[in-house]
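Holo prediction. Input below; ligand is zinc ion.
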Amino acid sequence: MPELPEVETTRRGLAPHLIGRKVTALDIRQPRLRWPIPRALREKLPGQRIDDIERRAKYLLVHTKAGSALLHLGMSGSLRVLPASTPIGTHDHVDWRLDSGRVLRFTDPRRFGSQLWQPVGTVHALLKDLGPEPLGDDFTGDLLWQRSRGRKAAVKVFLMDQSIVVGVGNIYASEALFHAGIHPKRAAGSVSRERYAKLAAEVKRVLEYSITRGGTTLRDFISPDSEPGYFERELFVYGREGEPCRVCGTPIKAITLGQRSTYFCPRCQR
Ligand SMILES: [Zn+2]
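Structure of the complex:
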């Protein structure tokens, strides 16, 4: 599933091919994505020039004077800029024709992705209750500390709550908690301010690292590659049940927390 780093890498890869280009027409071969493609997008987007492409959580916002297209990759979606003559595959559901002679092609075998519309001056319902961006200045250890007081939920579940901070997926939550030395099952309200400062720094570090790696593997969006930012050998706990901790040698444990597989070192994390 594309996580925040892959979505950010997609944004950076697409931006030079989209910003300043006009959308001349849409070819919608399958309008039934996670939600149907709304009439407003079909009516308003053609003829518009793309002013900017922004990321909010795992959504991409393609801004025009008439409004913004809100794109999500779902479980298996991808966006590529291709020559208009590129043959169309079974899962190539939508093309935006551009005045550059290329198309922005949305491919999604499982169709959990979406293309929605946000009118000018409004915030789409899906974006309304989101917490701050993890890479932004608003996301700090103090914020985590303040929001967690009195909370009995496991710190990992708390960290993955989109109203607290957006886009910290399962891999990144597990890895950041390991590097911060915090046991994933610990009650969020019992983690000290100092340890939250360390955790916030580790969340930023693991996400930035992954974006950098994504940036190297996805450099050319004309021939994209869906390698995730992290490679197996760089993970400290995620997916490593029973293998020795890279720091202390203790076997890594796996538990389920909030319906998600959770990995940790029982010695390094408390
Ligand atoms: Zn360890």
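Residues 193-217 form the longest helix (25 residues). That is the main takeaway for now.
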